[in-house]
Amino acid sequence: MNTHIVLSAINISADYILDSKRGLYLNAIDNVSIDFRSDEVIGIAGESGSGKSTLVKILYGAAFPPLIIRKGKVYLFTKDNSKIDITSITREELRKNIWWKHISYIPQNAMNVLNPVKKVKDQFIEVFKYHDERIDAKETITKIKELFMRLGLPIEALNAYPHQLSGGMRQRVVIALSLLFNPRIVIADEPTTAVDVVTQLGILNLLKDWQRNSKTTLIMVSHDMSVHAYMDDRIVVMYAGNVVEVGSKNDIFENPMHPYTKLLIASLIKKGEKKLKTGIAGEPPNLLNPPPGCRFHPRCPFAMDICRREAPPIVELSDGKVVRCWLYARK
To answer: Does residue 171 form part of some domain?
Structure first.
């Protein structure tokens, strides 16, 4: 597979402003660097509060107050090999030139995207016309119908209002909307959280088939490790705003290295297994005042003295595997 970097986050640190007068800031992302390649499904995994959704907002260019980027850059590499700094262009430039065309975003809740008082087809036409005023309604409807057919969506849904569709159908419509302009990068942020298991599988298959046929980069955000096992080529594991491990799906599931990753994998229920599963002991740290050293050390069964004093370095291993842990970088 001939892949190249399409999106690159370099040394990103970001805070949420809680009270600027009192100097209260929540450090949501801490020195994160990731390269995203063409034609791959890359998962971002971790518990709620690990920084997954905050990171993808930054990748998408939607880091608006109270979220602020303290340092770092996000670069988008276009088809002609030019480099665009996502973190330094205006919201209007993002809307007109980047969003939908280069990067699309699928949120958790479809009703946050769809206008409840407009028919589905009118919302598609509106997006089309925003990006190309020359397109007439008839031509637009033809293109939308072709897209619906490719995605296995019923054409009848175009004449419905969002509330007339099921939750799963609304989510599929939002996915269709995100794929309207064949973007090179699609970010799916917990796209199956609000639907039942059967619908979840249908949505995952829809995304998987589209990615395979279009060779796009799909960034799959989920707290559910079984979703990553089904979907991903490569996985980024996050904890408390840090990237703690990056590796291929096989590496992560068959040979996890960071203690947090090991505990995430161990908590999965395996077919035929009768042993009672338990969650990870303790609670994620308060990012208003994160613990010194490794942020995972209060919950880590392998914590050493150095883990409590110093943040571990990022250790690059063979085959692109990365881990951030003193177990692999002892002084």
So the answer is: no
For residue 233, what is the domain's CATH number?
3.40.50.300
From the list 193, 187, 183, 190, the residue with the least C-alpha distance to 219 is 187
User: Strands, DSSP E only, in 78-204?
Assistant: 83-85, 103-106, 185-189
Report whether pLDDT(278) > 70.
no
Give the SS3 label for residue 301: coil
CA distance readout (Å), 104 to 196, 198, 322: 24, 25, 27
Phi-psi group of 8: left, alpha or beta (phi > 0 → left; psi -120 to 50 → alpha; rest → beta): beta
pLDDT, averaged across the chain: 90
Residue 216 confidence (pLDDT) above 80: yes
Q: Is 134 domain-assigned?
A: no
- DSSP-assigned beta bridge partners for residue 29: 14
- What is the DSSP pairing of strand 5-19 with strand 103-106? unpaired
Q: Which domain holds residue 233?
A: 5-102+183-269+276-328
Check residue 131 and give its pLDDT.
75
- Residue 142 within any structural domain of the chain: no
Q: Encoding tokens for residue 269?
A: 């229920």
pTM for the model? 0.92
Question: Could you tell me if residue 320 is left (phi over 0), alpha (psi between -120 and 50 degrees) or otherwise beta?
Answer: left
Going by C-alpha positions, the residue among 83, 30, 37, 81 that lies closest to residue 58 is 30
Q: In this predicted structure, what is the pLDDT of residue 126?
A: 86
Asked if residue 217 belongs to a domain, the reply is yes
- How many domains would you assign to the chain? 1
Looking at residue 64, its pLDDT comes to 92
Q: Helix, strand or coil for residue 158?
A: helix
Average pLDDT over residues 136-145: 81
Q: Is the model's pLDDT at 133 over the cut of 80?
A: no
